[in-house]
Amino acid sequence: MSEGPSRQVVVANQLGLHARPAGVLAREAQSFEAEIFLIAGDQEVDAKSILDILTLAAGQGSPLELRAVGADAETALNTLEALFKSKFGEKK
C-alpha cells in the first residue's frame, strides 16, 4: 500500500463508477504530478488509468479511499473528492 494523505469517498452515482465517470476521474487525476490511487477493500489501483478504475466495479454506495503521493497530493485529493461529491456531473 502506498503512503500519503487520503480521503474517504462514496460512489453516489446511480450507475456506479461506470465508464463515463471513470474517464472523468482518470483524466482529472492525470492533470496532477502526484501518484494517485483508488482503494476498495484490499484492491489498490492507479486512479490515472480508466481501465484500472473499472476493475474495481464500484457500484452506487461503494466506499472508496483516494490516496495521493507527491507535491500536489492535497490539491489532487480536494479536486477528486469534489468530483465524487458532484456525482461527476451526472443527474442521478
Describe the structure.
It is globular, with a radius of gyration of 12 Å. It has helices spanning 19-30, 50-55, 73-85, and strands at residues 6-10, 35-40, 43-46, 63-69. A hairpin with a 2-residue loop joins strand 2 and strand 3. The chain is 34% helix and 24% strand. Strands 1-4-2-3 form a four-stranded antiparallel beta sheet. It has 92 residues and is of the alpha+beta class.
Which key phrases capture this entry?
globular, single chain, 92 residues, 4 strands, Histidine-containing Protein, Chain: A, 34% helix, alpha+beta
Spell out the blueprint of helices and strands.
Blueprint: E1 6-10, H1 19-30, E2 35-40, E3 43-46, H2 50-55, E4 63-69, H3 73-85
Antiparallel strand pairs: 1-4, 2-3, 2-4
Instruction: Tell me about the largest β-sheet.
Output: 4 strands, antiparallel
Order of helices and strands: EHEEHEH
In order across it, which strands form the biggest sheet? 1-4-2-3
Q: Do you know the CATH architecture?
A: 2-Layer Sandwich
Top-tier CATH class? Alpha Beta
Ends distance: 32 Å
What is the count of helical runs? Answer: 3
Computed over alpha carbons, the radius of gyration is 12 Å
Q: Could you estimate the helical fraction of the residues in percent?
A: 25-40%
The proportion of strand residues reads 15-25%
Strand element count: 4
CATH domain fold name: Histidine-containing Protein, Chain: A
Mean pLDDT: 95
Question: By helix and strand content, what is the structural category?
Answer: alpha+beta
Shape: globular
Poorly predicted runs of 5 or more residues: none
**CATH homologous group name:** HPr-like
Give the domain tally: 1
